[in-house]
Write a structure and sequence with these properties.
301 residues; alpha+beta; Immunoglobulin-like; six-stranded mixed sheet; 4 helices; 21 strands; 35% strand; elongated; binds 2-acetamido-2-deoxy-beta-D-glucopyranose; signal; cell membrane; cell-cell adhesion mediator activity
Length: 301
Amino acid sequence: MAMVRLVACFVLYTSLGHIPSSLGVILRTTDKIVWANEFEPIELTCLIESISTNNPRIEWKKIKNGVPSYVYFQNKIAGDLENRAQLREPANILIFNTTRSDTAEYRCEVAAIDDQRDFDEILISLAVRVKPVVPRCSVPEAVTVGTSTELRCLENEGFPAPQYRWFHNNEELPQDPKNSPKFVNSSYTINPDTGGLKFQRVRKEDAGEYYCQAKNDAGHAQCSPQMMEVYDIDILGIFLKSFAAVAVFFCLAACICHSLKRGCFHKKSHSENNYNWPSQTDASYRDADEGHFRHKSSFVI
Ligand SMILES: *[C@@H]1O[C@H](CO)[C@@H](O)[C@H](O)[C@H]1NC(C)=O
Ligand SMILES: *[C@@H]1O[C@H](CO)[C@@H](O)[C@H](O)[C@H]1NC(C)=O
């Protein structure tokens, strides 16, 4: 009997002993790390587990790059979230339309003056996913069979950083060509992190339309298809070489012509024994400098 009484006493004592500690403010959140999609609403939860103060002071701060600023202060939404958020019972913050600049840490702080433990805070980190924009793709127009080449794809807006996939004639290129009967003889490798599609040795069958897709959890975007031609022989090289040869020929011809003209002109000017005439004919040849010519000729006349 004495034992039972002792146990009862102990239970009463310990439960009484717990009462003061529950007279303190304790916060809780459903998610310490929150992901949201850009342009969608998101609620950061700040739940009050226990409190005895009637009107606790609630504040929210945004901490970006280590710099805190108020987003809820003196019962008003302020700073970066002004007109874009609202406080919801008990102390949650609801952002109506998140933007990428909302990615930051947020701290809910509750001060309860009548509680023994009169302050608690909770830190939540918010990451806003951003849909990729149309990636920039570079596909060579023409390559020669047997040479190596690289197709590139780059997208800078998406968050988290997107993964890249490549399509050949509207069919996705498998990560590893060795695993696909259709592409088993192709020599390409894809780097899904950098967007590179590299061919060790281009084959005739690799010709076609290519486009790339950038994708993350928020969405995806792709560039428009671009044609890659594959030539048996180095047609491009031959074209460039013949173009260079033609250019050199015209340059030489122009040079020769020019020096011949000058030679003729010099003869002419020497044959006419007048000091005024050469300057006039000289000016009339330089038809590019017309204003100058007019000035000169009026002076001569
Ligand atoms: C969110 O904001 C963006 C840009 O500020 C706007 O285009 C979009 O319509 C907004 N969405 C909603 C649901 O208000
Ligand atoms: C791949 O190469 C092998 C050997 O040259 C050939 O037998 C096979 O038909 C080729 N496969 C494709 C899909 O081109």
